[in-house]
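subagent[fold] <- orchestrator: predict structure for attached chain, return tokens only, no commentary.
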Amino acid sequence: MSRREDLAWGVRNGMLIGGLYSLFVLILYSVDGPRRFDKINVALPALIGLYLGGGFTAGLVLGAFRSSLRSRTTAYAVSLLAAIPVAIGTTVLVTRNGTHWTSKEWFVATFMSVFIAVAGMAAFWKGDPEDVSSE
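subagent[fold] -> orchestrator:
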């Protein structure tokens, strides 16, 4: 596989996951209105932007390191790296604090990165090199 194909694979899968999350919040919004989002002071377009932007960014990372996804250890490290921008974006969106982080924001972003990486590994890593190298 070429680098371009690997990146396209990553972005396609990241956008698919981001799109599914976006669809879910759109359904929530259509059923319940803005109440859930107003409660945590998060605008629906910002949340959808986070999901799509996070899917794109995480997909780029996964695609760039696609050949490393064959080993469980390196796949976890790549997943952790891919989760960092998503966790930082989520922390900024929810706390509305993008510059002056306290230990609370750093803890949340770190914990979320580890959680996303572990959840991603549990859901998607199959242990078969063919799962990663072919479509």
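orchestrator: received. Logging for downstream: The first helix runs from residue 3 to 32. The helical segments are 3-32, 35-39, 44-64, 72-95, 103-124, 129-133.
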